[in-house]
Design brief:
Shape of chain A: globular
Oligomer: heterodimer
Number of domains of chain A: 1
Strand content of chain B: 5-15%
Strand order of the largest sheet of chain B: 2-3-4-1-5
Helix content of chain A: 40-55%
CATH architecture of the largest domain in chain B: 3-Layer(aba) Sandwich
Order of helices and strands of chain A: EHEEHEEHEHHHEHEH
CATH topology of chain A: Rossmann fold
Strand content of chain A: 25-35%
Number of strands of chain B: 7
Number of helices of chain A: 8
Largest sheet of chain A: 8 strands, mixed
Helix content of chain B: 55-70%
Number of helices of chain B: 15
Bound molecules: guanosine-5'-triphosphate, magnesium ion
Structural class of chain A: alpha/beta
CATH architecture of chain A: 3-Layer(aba) Sandwich
Shape of chain B: globular
Largest sheet of chain B: 5 strands, parallel
Structural class of chain B: alpha/beta
Strand order of the largest sheet of chain A: 3-2-4-5-1-6-7-8
Number of strands of chain A: 8
Number of domains of chain B: 3
Radius of gyration of chain A: 16 Å
CATH class of the largest domain in chain B: Alpha Beta
CATH topology of the largest domain in chain B: Rossmann fold
Chain lengths: 202, 332
C-alpha cells in the first residue's frame, strides 16, 4: 500500500489536514494507526470530530508520533487504498524536550523512507511574517531533501485567513519548481485538486 | 564527500539526543544519500563486493567495529612504511573475541574482516573457515589434535572462526575439548602471521570461558561486542525486506508482528534483537501468503502484495513450534 507522508513545521495544520481530508473522502470515523518514536504501534478509533478536538490545537508540537489513516480513492476504473501519514512538526534549533527531539528524528526517518511527500506551509503566517521570517531554512532544506525521495508537492494551508493570499504569492515565488495547492483544512477549499493529484501519484 | 556519520541511523540518534539540529540532520542525510554505500539497512544482507569497507559501511550500528577497522588500517600502513625505511616494525596480533546473541551480525562481520585483511595485506587469502566443536573434537586420544590441525591448515592465510567456542570447555577435565584448545594455542604460535583466530558466542558464556582459561584471554587483544537490535530496528528490517520484495503488511499484520517480536524478546532472551529471526518470519509469511492465494479466487495486484495477519500468524506458528523443539532438544 502506498504511503503519503505529511510533513511541515509545527502548527501549520498537518493533523487538521489529515482529519479534514479523511472527512472530505467520505469518512465520519477514522481508525488512527499510531506509531511512537520507540517503534511501538497501537490503533485507536475515533469519530473525526472527537479526533479533531483531541489532536488539533493552537500550540506547536501537539503531534509527537506518526499517526495515519487508511483512505481510498477512485483510480481509473477501480479504487485504490493508501495510507495518509501525519508526522510531528519539524523545526530548526535544538528543542529542550527529548520527546520532541525523538519525534523529529522519527519524522526525518519517515521522510527518508517515503515515496509520496506532502509538505504543508502556513500561508497565513507567511503572509504576515514575509519571506525571510515566514519561510525558514528548515522549509527550504526539507523541500530540497524531500524532492529527492519521490513525489513531492506543497499545500499552502489556512487560505481562509486574512493575509494568506500574500503568503501564497511568497510561497510560489520561493518554490518555483514545486507544484503548490492552496487549501484550507478548515473550509476544505482546494481539496478537489489535492484529491485529483493524490490519485495520480499513488 | 566524507560524512561524519557512519549511518543514517546515527544521524537520527544524534538529532534525538540534541547534538545536532534538524537542519544539520537534513544536510547530513543529503550527504549520506549521495554516497550509495550507506543506504542498505540490513546488516545481514551480504551483497558481494570487492571493497570490504563499503560492505562494512552498509551495516547499521556496529560503531565499535568500524572504529576498530580504522585503527587497524592505520596501524598496518604505518608498520609497512616503517619496514620500508628499515625501522623495527611490530607485528599485528589480531585474534579476536566476538560476543553477542545470534543474528547480531557476528558471522557477517567475520567474512567482511577476511576480505578487509586481504585488502590490507595482513592476510594473503582472506577466506573464512567456520567451525564448531564437532569439527574439532575427535573420538579418541590424538584424534582431536589431528582434526584441529586439519582445520588450522585449511585456515592458513585466512580466518579461523570458531562459533560457540566455550563448548570446547564443556566436558570438563577429561574431555577432548581441552586438547582442541591446546592445539589451537600452539597453532597460533606456529602460524603467527598467517592466521587470525576468532572465537564467537553468547556474551555471558564467552566471558566465563575466558575466566576459566586465563591463558587464552591474553592472546586475544581484540574484544568486540555485538549489541541486540532494538525492537524498532527489527520492525524496520522487516519493512525494508518487504518493500524490497514489493510486499506490504496490513495494519493488523503490522500489529501482530510487533507484538510477536516484543513477546519473543521478552520471553526468550536469545531471540531479542535477532535479525535472522525476523528474516525467517517474513520469508515464511511470504510463502504462507502464496499458499493462501493459490487456494483463493481471482488474483489482482493488491492481493498479490498484501500480507495479512493470518499469514504472519501461520508463519510464526511454525517458528514457535521450531523454537519449542529446539528448547526441548537442548534440555535433553
Ligand atoms: N483558520 C485555519 N486554521 C487552521 C487551518 N488548519 C489548521 N488550523 C489551525 O492551526 C492550528 C494547528 O493545527 P494542527 O493541525 O494541530 O497543526 P500541526 O501541523 O498538526 O501541528 P503539530 O502537530 O504541533 O506539529 C490549530 O489551531 C488549527 O485549528 C486552516 O486551514 N485554517
Ligand atoms: Mg499535528
Amino acid at each position: 500500500m502506498h504511503k503519503c507522508l505529511i510533513v511541515g513545521k509545527p502548527n501549520v495544520g498537518k493533523t487538521a489536514f489529515l482529519l479534514s481530508f479523511s472527512r472530505y473522502l467520505g469518512l465520519a470515523q477514522v481508525e488512527l494507526r499510531v506509531r511512537t518514536s520507540d517503534g511501538s504501534i497501537h490503533a485507536k478509533r475515533r469519530s473525526i470530530d472527537c479526533a479533531y478536538t483531541e489532536l488539533v490545537g493552537p500550540v506547536p508540537h501537539i503531534t509527537q508520533e506518526l499517526q495515519s489513516v487508511v483512505l481510498e480513492l477512485p483510480v481509473g476504473k477501480g479504487r485504490r487504498s493508501f495510507e495518509l501519514v501525519d508526522s510531528s512538526g519539524i523545526m530548526d534549533g535544538i528543542h529542550a524536550s527529548p520527546v520532541v527531539r525523538a519525534a523529529m528524528a522519527q519524522t526525518l526517518e519517515a521522510v527518508t523512507a517515503a515515496k509520496v511527500i506532502i509538505h504543508i506551509l502556513d500561508a497565513a503566517a507567511i503572509g504576515l511574517l514575509g519571506l525571510s521570517e515566514g519561510v525558514g531554512v528548515i522549509d527550504r532544506d526539507l523541500a530540497e531533501y524531500a524532492q529527492q525521495q519521490g513525489e513531492y508537492f506543497l499545500l499552502a494551508n489556512k487560505m481562509d485567513l486574512a493575509g494568506a493570499q500574500r503568503g501564497l504569492q511568497i510561497i510560489t515565488k520561493a518554490f518555483t519548481q514545486v507544484q503548490t495547492f492552496p487549501v484550507s483544512a478548515l473550509t476544505m477549499e482546494g481539496f478537489k485538486e489535492v484529491k485529483r493529484h493524490v490519485a495520480r501519484v499513488i | 564527500m566524507g560524512s561524519k556519520f557512519s549511518s543514517t541511523r546515527e544521524i537520527y540518534q544524534e538529532l534525538a539526543k540534541g547534538n545536532i539540529t534538524a537542519v544539520e540532520a537534513i544536510h547530513a542525510l543529503k550527504v549520506m544519500q549521495s554516497s550509495p554505500a550507506n543506504v542498505a539497512v540490513d546488516r545481514l544482507e551480504s551483497v558481494p563486493s570487492d571493497n570490504a569497507k563499503e560492505e562494512l559501511a552498509k551495516l547499521i550500528g556496529l560503531k565499535n567495529v568500524k572504529n576498530l577497522v580504522r585503527e587497524i588500517e592505520a596501524f598496518a600502513k604505518i608498520q609497512r612504511v616503517r619496514q620500508q625505511l628499515g625501522l623495527k616494525s611490530e607485528s599485528l596480533v589480531l585474534h579476536m573475541i566476538f560476543k553477542g546473541n545470534p543474528g547480531t551480525g557476528k558471522t557477517t562481520v567475520a567474512r567482511i574482516f577476511g576480505q578487509l585483511f586481504k585488502e590490507l595485506e595482513v592476510l594473503n587469502k582472506g577466506h573464512v573457515v567456520e567451525v564448531e566443536r564437532a569439527d574439532l573434537v575427535g573420538e579418541y586420544i590424538g584424534h582431536t589434535a589431528q582434526r584441529t590441525r586439519e582445520q588450522v591448515k585449511k585456515a592458513v592465510g585466512g580466518i579461523l572462526f570458531i562459533d560457540e567456542a566455550y563448548s570446547l570447555a564443556r566436558g570438563g577435565e577429561k574431555d577432548f575439548g581441552k586438547e582442541a584448545i591446546d592445539t589451537l594455542v600452539k597453532a597460533m604460535e606456529d602460524h603467527k602471521d598467517e592466521i587470525i583466530l576468532i572465537l564467537a558466542g553468547y556474551r555471558r558464556e564467552m566471558e566465563q570461558f575466558l575466566r576459566i582459561n586465563p591463558g587464552l584471554s591474553s592472546r586475544f587483544p581484540i574484544i568486540l561486542d555485538f549489541p541486540d537490535y532494538s525492537l524498532s530496528e527489527l520492525i524496520q528490517i522487516a519493512e525494508l525486506m518487504l518493500s524490497q520484495r514489493e510486499y506490504s503488511l496490513t495494519s493488523s499484520a503490522q500489529n501482530c508482528l510487533f507484538s510477536l517480536l516484543k513477546n519473543l524478546g521478552d520471553n526468550y532472551d536469545e531471540n531479542r534483537g535477532n535479525a535472522r529471526l525476523v528474516r525467517n518470519i517474513i520469508e515464511r509469511a511470504i510463502r504462507q501468503q502464496a499458499v493462501r492465494l493459490v487456494a483463493s479466487g481471482p488474483l489482482n495486484r493488491e492481493k498479490l502484495q498484501v500480507i495479512t495477519e493470518g499469514d504472519i500468524k501461520a508463519a510464526t506458528e511454525e517458528t514457535s513450534a521450531q523454537m519449542f523443539n529446539r528448547w526441548q532438544a537442548e534440555r535433553r
